[in-house]
């Protein structure tokens, strides 16, 4: 099955199908998701000047989850932002995004939520990627992230978990909504084009026994800013409006910004879906949102 890079979790055939061999031939930039080929010229590269970056292992149950940390150089403590990866897992774009937050004064933590099953960032076959992603159930992901915050509170005096934000992209965008409803420590969230409602028959994740963001709109502990594209082929504007209605009914401050001309993945500067103006505006809004609600 071919990948669709303009929807939240792929799975729909592309207009011009690309074979597994064809995808493999595209791969040329080490560290970026294999499924999307070499990094585009627009890919942002954030240096480590003034930062400390490190790998970590977070004990969760009977396993240790790999994690990537980027934080300012210094004693801290620094406000924390959990950066939840997209469907392709932890690759260079996600690590670079963590460094961007660190440059803004945050302790950024990326947890590999697929680690028990494999690493999709090096894969080009949708069925293989989908198999890994499906192992990361809603219950497991919520537990993994909560335990990661516990670990920070217990072991990292440089991380201020009393000032906790969460953000995520694509698959991680939906996780952002859900974790904001799950963990009372979350002060603010910024969800980038994650699914909002059950995708329906024939779509990835359809039929799974799990809640969706629209189901928890009235249970958000920290307000969430949704950042969505009007040209997203996998998340129609009708879904966005359904979520807006649910948020309005809930009566809290959470809201959604819709970029009319932006496709899915408009912040993903390493691929063709990137839209610089929308991405920069949304990034500024996310930072302002976190600071408005006491994170940063």
UniProtKB/TrEMBL annotation:
Pfam family, one: DLH
Record domain Dienelactone hydrolase: where: 66-293
Name recorded for this polypeptide: Carboxymethylenebutenolidase
Source species: Eilatimonas milleporae
Matches recorded under Gene3D superfamilies: alpha/beta hydrolase (3.40.50.1820)
Domain of life: Bacteria
InterPro entries: AB_hydrolase_fold (IPR029058), Dienelactn_hydro (IPR002925), Dienelactone_hydrolase-like (IPR051049), TAT_signal (IPR006311)
Gene Ontology molecular function, alphabetical: hydrolase activity
